[in-house]
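Before a colleague's protein record goes any further, I have to sign it off. Thanks in advance; the entry in question is below:
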Amino acid sequence: MRVLSFSWVIFLTSGLSTRQWYLVVFVRVLGKLAELRDSGLPIFFFVGNHDLWMGDYFEQELDIPVYHCPQVFLCHGKRFFIGHGDGLGPGDKGYKRMKKVFTNPFCKWLFPLATP
């Protein structure tokens, strides 16, 4: 469990997926996230269904921890269970199988070779 001792926290749980969105908006989002982190605001990123191949950029360049599974945080004496929720509940077996393929290291290595 991670103990939080600050008043404001940003938890990012949404995907960053399409190439067009990435080119137009993502750079501005990264700039704003860097500005917020530089000001001392803690930010945590929870990987979701659009972030399965998330690299280490957030951790290395922005000092934003990236979580691949839900975490328990303690903030002002209260426990919070925070995560994306992607594939955690019962059912949706097709998606869970697909997620295992997409997160497999061999598939991650193979995909760039198979696409133009």
About this structure: The longest strand covers residues 71-75. Strands lie at 2-4, 10-12, 43-46, 66-67, 71-75, 78-82. Residues 19-38 form the longest helix (20 residues).
